[in-house]
Amino acid sequence: MLIDLHLHTYPKSDDSFMTPDDLIEAAKSQGLDGICLTEHDAFWSQDVIDQLSRKHDFLVMPGCEINTDAGHLLVFGLKEYVFGFHKPEFLRDAMKQQGALAIAAHPYRRRFLKDPGSQPEARAEMLQRARSDSMFSICHALEAVNGRGTPSENCFSQDLGAELGIKMTGGSDAHKLEQLGTAATHFPNPITGLDDLIQELRQGRFEAVDLRDGQGANNRANDNEPE
Q: Which of 35, 84, 124, 198 lies deepest, with the highest CB count within 10 Å?
């Protein structure tokens, strides 16, 4: 299954230009098998998520992109925003209590600069500094393919993930319909809802997929089917 784990819709994310209905129909037309609505510091109720899934006959799951002092985290398994989530330690404790987990979103931000990052020594220093960032200790995975990231930015994220020895995901981070279909995460096992998603993420049964390699989601989905 191809699932986009990182998406924003209006009005819950006020910097988005997509409604949930438009996003879902576009995701279906592009061959995705499911999406996660990960608004900025805002949560969807499971009831509304279920209504959207039934209305469009499509897998929709809730998440949240939480802005912490150390960076942005895609969190799955929490139900509402609580003051204090901006502190990574506070968020870590809440996730532990509720069985939730986090993925480091666009980890190249604040950590990689194209200039002087094109210079090997400077890039190596940035990578080493990022590797020691304590935020990653509370993450179950790292977003290695961000649909709005440049090749050099995503390459940095992938190298960072390899350095950390952490599993990596992909997501479009779309705020507009034309940004959809750039990146996703492939899950070999069936996922029917949030509980399945969390279980597969926790077990590490997934991989990042860059859909900008000339293959659309429809072709990629066919490639993943058993022969």
A: 35
